[in-house]
User: Fold these one by one.
Assistant:
Number 1:
Amino acid sequence: MNTIKKEEVQMRPYMNPYLAGFLLGILLLITIYITGRGLGASGGIKAVVLLLTKTFQPLHWENGAYFQKYALSHTGNPLDTWLFFEIVGVVIGAFYSGLISNRVGFRIDRGFRITNKTRLLMAGLGGILFGFGSQLGRGCTSGAALSGMAVMSFGGIVTMISIFGSAYLVAYFFRKFWI
Amino acid sequence: MGPLVPSIISNEFDLIIALILGFGFGFILEQSGFSSSKKLVGLFYGYNFVVIKVFMTAGLTAMIGVLAFSHFGLLDISIVYINPTFLKSAIIGGLIMGVGFIIGGFCPGTSVCASAIGKWDGMVFILGSVFGIYFFMEIYPLISDMYFDGAMGALTMPQILGISEVSFALIMSAMTAGIFVMVSFIQSRVNKIPFELPKKKVVRMSILAIVPILIIAVTGFMPNRLERIEAKANDPENLKAAELKALDSDKLAIEIVNNYYNWNIIDVRSPEEYKSWHLPLSINIPLDSILNREWETYFKQDFKKNIYYSDDIDQTKKAFALAEVIGKADNYILNSTSKEFRTMFFEPHTLQAGASKETVKYYNFREETGKQMNDLKKSLERFHSAPKIKKMRKVQGGCA
């Protein structure tokens, strides 16, 4: 990871955060205006999980309580949902952005006190927790917190406070992974 | 009026739109630096607050936009998806996500962005969340009670606090401005850079902060779409126009029998009154919900004439006036009540002896027309082609 420094010199600087936030807000407003719903992320990953289960565990797909409930209201390919298409768009958009700003390349971001292996382990563990929590909380930072805030949803704002509050509460115990 | 899906844009095209909007979402997130976990968790250690700045600016911009759009009638908030509140799972789910955020360094959207530009930690995070989501589905039967506990419906913050949406937006704007100053201060302390507020920057930031507050204030003071329509409809001119376009019961009955397909016969009484009895082939659009978007197509079309009736001529005129304001449809009123119409055509009464020739003629005509209307209604119903109200579906949203 010694090359990071050199690459960062060539990278274009990030956008001004207030400008980026304003643009993101306008995008969210357009999304609500066109589709009547907000942006999301975890729902796109959920569609993949559903497809994997349907493909590789057909028996379980028929018997599992969650999947039975899902099948009641959805037929056809689980990927055939708004959020999955949106997430495909996110991948393309982020890649394009990285490309024009010279930020594409295989890398790992981590605190300087841990190894790459530890970082990947933590990323996987964090992913498990976030994935689980997003299902329980009916949405993640995008679908529940951000989109919920746009429509002044009580539940969305509770989830937002809960996510950031809990991260602040435990941040101290995980400081060696980051600083 | 928005939302454009599904009434204006088809559901198939909606997926293409998802792709395009997703592109913008990914692009902006990556440009903000959200593809770097070190940058993301910076806010929890005080060295980088970019997440708070982007997140709060975006949320506030969209919130003010939605508020103004719905106030001025560009967006029908009644069919926009508002995340329903399930208090217990929202809190517990949020707590778990917060821990996942600190440990993993990403949230789902940002992990996708990071993966897209080649970050291994982002990809592993996605893999983890696949397992996390699957785990939730597996233990769903065990936690479903908790999952649905504390259901409060599509509740909003202004409803909880008992304040107007405009006041809530103002409070949020003020709070956000305060947060921005605070985090800038903390960031410079943590990074050991002297905290400076040059006058030029203060002026610039204040001007920027005034814009949202101005938009909210304008929204608050301007009459909203409903108020504007009401005011126009109450114009005496409109009410007078109703009298010029009035049909009596006999004429309407003839139209029903001969030209029913040219008319929307609109009952503006309550659904209960409509249910107990209504004119043949009429549909029900209650006066107090006449401005709802679901009925808009009836007032904006110009291939069928609309005729309104109720049990109170003033109500009928009111409906006529509102319809005139909403759309370009050709509107008429029935100048008698539904009760009179019913007595005239559907309640057989004996003719008094020695009635004039004129009276007998009307009597025979009404008896015959009443029968014809009944026959027409029956035959249309047999072929399921009696007029029916199209039902509007609420948008399905959410992330989980």
Number 2:
Amino acid sequence: MFHEFLSVATLIGIANSGVRLATPYLYAALGEMFGQRSGVLNLGVEGVMLMGAFAAYYTVYIGGDPWLGVLAAIIVGALMGLLMALISVTMQAQQGISGIGLTLFGVGLSSLLLKVLVGSPIGISGFSTWKVPGLNSIPVIGPIFFEHNILVYIAYLLVPVSLYVLYRTTFGLKIRAVGQNPEAADSLGVRVNAVRYGTVMLGSAMAGIAGASLSIGLLNIFQENMTNGLGFIAVALVYFGGWRPLGVLIGALLFSTVNALQLWMQVLGVPIPSDLAVMMPYLLTIVVLAVGGQRIRQPAALTKPYERGE
Amino acid sequence: MRKVSWGLILVLIVGLILAACAAPVAAPAGGGQAAATEAAAEAESAGPIRVALLMPSTINDISWSQSMYVSLKELQDELGADKLEIAYSENMFNVPDAAAAIRDYASSGYNLVIAHGAQYGDSLMDIAPDFPDVSFAWGTTTRTGKDQGIENIFAYEPRGDQAGYVTGVLAAKLTKSKIIGLVGPVDAGDAKLHVDGFLAGVKATDPDVKVNVSFTGSFGDTALAAEAANTHIRAGADVLTGSAQQVVGAIGVAKENGVPWLGVQADQSTAAPEIVLASAIYDWTQLLRDIIAMREAGTMGGEVLQLTYANGGIRTIYSDALPAEAVEAAKAAEAGLADGSITIVVEPR
């Protein structure tokens, strides 16, 4: 069984799974990163993902195009973000608690909507696998990176896009300024709260797509609480990645690949207790955080609401 | 001040919403406080039997919780809503929440409280002696607490190994690649029984067939169950099965890949009729009838009941798309388990 485990086909399989599994984390964590860089910790990602997942699922369920489903997820996500911003930016409620509230709200509402509008989960036809012509025939690389559904590719494209937005645009500069020193930014004419509304809504819209990437991409079905804590792992990945797009990418890939690895170990009958196997990605994350963490400082104004000095 | 109060208000609102969601849902309506005291005051034999059900998951989880809810509903349709009242609480996976709800139901006039999960046992053993007029039921277990002097707990045990065995026979007949993938939740309880039975069924039918077994470590990790299904397919499996509510993720992947899925516990064909070719469903109606009858005859608990193919508590529904020969083999296995000519040999894994 070990020789089977170490075969090229298996290694490609693990990498292929890892790339796919990282998708929802990438959307959610990159989105969350924008919010946190501007000083808003949004723990509502889980709830927003579920609402996005349901919106996309339901759109396709009633006959809509999958792209329309993505649009629905973006709109619902952004609206959830608006709610979060209203509570934590304008009303200045404690961010952690507001986020947990948003998560509970999303979990409850999405499961209620499923029950009322659909009943038992029913499979749909969302995005199917689209092999990138040409690129998918490259040996090894092709089957690992270019045999996925379109939402997977977009997730990876968002990494350079996020890098560009954060470090090469005025909006990115404002985000970083607002997250580091809102008073200084304000004195230079940056509208602190407006920037935060923008990042929280952008982040939530991306969390909405993260949900859609499950319900109409990877799974093609919706079930109550189907994210099962994935949103919180995405928040952890932002810390793990040091609030930087590449760090988030590395964290998401590491976590997912180890998860894929443990699945393959189980499937191929490597004699390791399943309880231990499923712990592997979490253990590794903790170890990496303990060893590699602490170097990067978080945005100075994170979790601090901004109130203008009179 | 302003900040604090907003945060508090939000928490309170969310708390209220949650409380409303988690609160016992009375079906049919009219099970209010007044009715509860009334029912408690009235002689039990006169009024309807009032049954409360607590589930770890939801009534639409297409597995464990749904199977019990559907059976209870069927029984209510059969007896009439005036003879059988139902209330239920979903998402009671956490034992402390469930224990509180069990106590609530027991003290508000319910005659039978079903705690539908193996994790509720210890709480039940604490609560049941306080309510001698109420019967309780729980499973998967054979423990009624009778040895500790508790008289009002019924234990139930669906023979998941039998359901798994018949499914295994069917799977072994269907596979052409001679590899089957099993997406399990945790290697314990009902899920473990199912896996053990499944492996025995496959082995008895075709010893050359290999079953790859994986667990996600959770009942609700839909995304990981989906990736497990992907992994199984990539590793050569051409028939998939599994248990717990998370399997909807695996069914979604099976559908995308056109790979047949064999369900267990509830009828999973609703999720994807074209690929869910059979479901070994748990039918609790007779078990519930038996409990109610025993109660009326004065036995408040202390009995262990099973779901088996012999008593009709487990039955497999087959899709028309299945080859006749495979269905025949599976039906022969059903009959063999029912008359005892087949015994399930569990091998260490």
Number 3:
Amino acid sequence: MHPAKSVIYFTVMSGLGYGLVIWLGIYALTDHNLPGGWNAGALTLALALVASGLISSTLHLGHPERAWRALSQWRTSWLSREGVAAIVTFIPLGLWWLSWMLTEPAAELKGALTDMERVFAILGMIGALVTVFTTSMIYASLKAVPSWHTIWTPLAYLILALYTGLLGFMAILGLAGGNPGVIAEYGLYLLAAGLVVKLLFWKHTRAGSGSTTSSATGIEGDVRLLEGPHTQANYLLREMGFTIARKHADKLRVGVFLFAFGVPFLTLAALSYDAAGWVAVAGFAALMVGVFMERWLFFAEARHVVTLYYGARAA
Amino acid sequence: MTSLPQTTQKKLGLVIDLDICVGCQACTVNCKEWNEGGHSGPLTDLMATGPDPSGVWFNRVHTFETEERTVHFPKSCLHCDDAPCVTVCPTGASYKREEDGIVLVNADTCIGCKLCSWACPYGAREYDEDQGVMKKCTLCVDRIYNPNLQEDQRVPACVSTCPAGARHFGDLGDPDSDLSRLVAERGGYDLMPEQGTKPVNKYLPPRPKTVSEAEKALKAVGMADDGVGDAGFFARLVDRVLTK
């Protein structure tokens, strides 16, 4: 599948933003406080990441001005459900943000959250998880892209959102002069979960779907394409027949292992032994490089069964 | 509304006979010709006379080969009963008609998100870069009910133009229609049944080869291919001796 930059940016950044919301919420709900000004700042950053991702996702539309229509078909369409979930989630998140913006200076004195803010935060955190899930289901529901049509797709999106969110939150904690080491343990759990889920996802991708040129055409015997229907590439081949990444898939996968799991493992381990705050920032930066590579592979490596009509023998 | 209808009153569709199709491309060209100005027109071409022309077509003919034969394989929208392109549509622009089962796109509400083209296993939907909306086969909805056309012309453009008679149009929901009988008789089948889309369009397989009959006839007149071809006298002699 063609890896559209706008969609890669959207899925990575909205995942990070929602993950940040969740960890900021957990931190605040357990009566912890970031230093003055950082609470509202971190929440502003999280919401800005989510909003920029959502705006980015409308950039690849042929008619962005009609995007509001996409909220209507939530009964059947995961894309529509995602739009609805994202907007509904903005209501409690926006109220939480507004409340923090107005009361931030006093927040340190009275504990992190008022009762009302607790309600907004919990609803916002649930909404964040639901929205990430609906995003992943847009892909997981497509039977025509066998690589995506698996439970490992939503699990990978959810775990990577929590994982990037936690390391992002630890970087903020490090920059704010706090001690990110106290939550490094959770980072290691998410790292392990993310690694296992991605390995299972790739195993599923390699297994293929069983669809072949023969099942696509119904022609018996060893069927191969003799002549394509057109001499030049068409929309289908540009969108669904993307092959560049598959050539370099193994190299990119090494990059994912290294940046999304290897370097963060070292920084998380160091942080749990009280390393300095900048180590958390370095670990987060490496993770983001790794997750962008992971997301690029997610799209580029996925084969669409329509390629069976264009010379692919199995999908 | 992108919920699929429970049932459709008719299942209008095509039956394509792979035994007959000669791959002449008349159906693809007449499709382009009619639909350029039809319900979903124009079918925009980009740089049609440039070095890398590209454009929207509803119907494309692929050619496959096996050890046995060459098969020309026309492919257009199959107007599936469980059309995944319809249910993924976030706006309701993509829909399946309750009255005849035709799957259409409303170009006025399509946002051009391309998700329907990702959901279709058959590559039946193509994005119009120029208009920013998705285009697809309409089963010539503007021909088949068109009172301005002579009755025998009220069939999809691809069917009316096929010089070999490889394309048939009708109601596949009526088990007694000529079309349904033809499908039953010839063992018509679905493309990629494992995708669970329940296509309405059916394909008729090439008939079994009758080459052995032909070979018998050639042998009778001493022209069968005995594996030595036009080898010289000495080689034939060696072949005969060694064969014994």
